User: What shape does this take?
Amino acid sequence: MDMEMQGSSSTERFIPVTSVANDKGVEVALDIYSYTIQIVNICFLGNPQHENEFVLVNAGMPESAPMILKEIEDRFGVGAQPKAIVLTHAHFFDHIGSIIDLVDKWNVPVYAHELEMPYLTSQKNYSLPDSTVEGGL
Assistant: This one.
C-alpha cells in the first residue's frame, strides 16, 4: 500500500489526541473485547482461554501496533496471534494505521469488503472531510 497517498509516511507520528478511555478494554461478552487506543476502538473476537482462536477487528492508528500486541499478550497469552484480521473500512487514520506492522509480525489473512479494495490499494481516496459535519471528523 502506498502510505504517502493515504496521508502517512515512514516517519508517521503519534497523533496527539486521546480520550478518557485510552488504553482501556471492555469485555462486552466472554468472546467480545473492545480496546481503545487513543480515540479509536479495536476488537478481539474469541474466547481468551483459546489463545490462537481469535480474530482482530481493525488495526488501529499509526504507531499503535505495540499497544495492540501488548493487549493481545495480556488477554490471550505470550505468542498469541489472531487467525485473521478483519478491516471494517480503509481509513488509515483510525482503522488500518498499523496493518503493515501487524502483518509483518503475523502471517495471517486480512479481510475487507471488496468495495474497500480501491482505498486499501491507494487507487482511490475517500472524500475530503466536511467541516460542517461534526467538525470535519
